[in-house]
Fold:
Amino acid sequence: MKKLIALFILVLVLLEATSVQAQYLEDLETLGYISGEGLACGAKRYKAYELISRAYLVSSAKSDEEQKKGMYKYNTAKADGYLTKKHSGLLGCDEVLRRFDNQKIFKTKVYKNGTLKMPDGKIIRPRQKYDPNLLYDKESNEREKLDEFYDKIIAKKKKQAKEQGIYDKIRREEMKVRR
Structure:
C-alpha cells in the first residue's frame, strides 16, 4: 500500500512539473510574439521589453535544457511576430505600439543578480546569479537582420512564382487590390 501511495505521489509531482514547463514555454512564446510585433512597429520601449523578457526566460528556467527550449520558443515566436507584421504591411502598428508601451511587464524590477520582482509582487529567483545586462546587446541591429531575412524570403517566393508562371497573375491581383 505504501508503494502505491508513493507511486501516486510521484506521478502527481511529474504531472505538475510537466504542467509548469508547458506554462513556461507558453509564456515565452507569447512574450516572443509580442517582442516581434514591437520590433517590427518600432516600439520605443522595445529594448527594455527585450531585457525583461530575456531575464524572465533565464530566471524562470528550472534547468539548462528548459532554458534552451525556452530560448528556441521565444526566438521562433519573435521571428513569426515580426515577419507576420511585416507581411501585413505593418497594418495596425498604431494599436500595437499603444498596447506595447502600456504593458505591465515594464513594472517588473530586474535586480543585479538576475532576480525579478513581477508587477503582481511575485519574486522569481534564478538558478544561479547572473548579470541581466549581459542578456541583451542594446546596440544590436536585429531589425536590419530580420528585414534582410524577410527580403530573402519574399525574393525566393517571387522567384518560385515566376518559375511556376504565376508571378504576373499575382502582380495583377495585387494591383487590383491597391486601386
Notes: The radius of gyration is 21 Å. The longest helix spans residues 2-41. The chain has two domains: 2-140, 142-179. The chain has a mean pLDDT of 84.
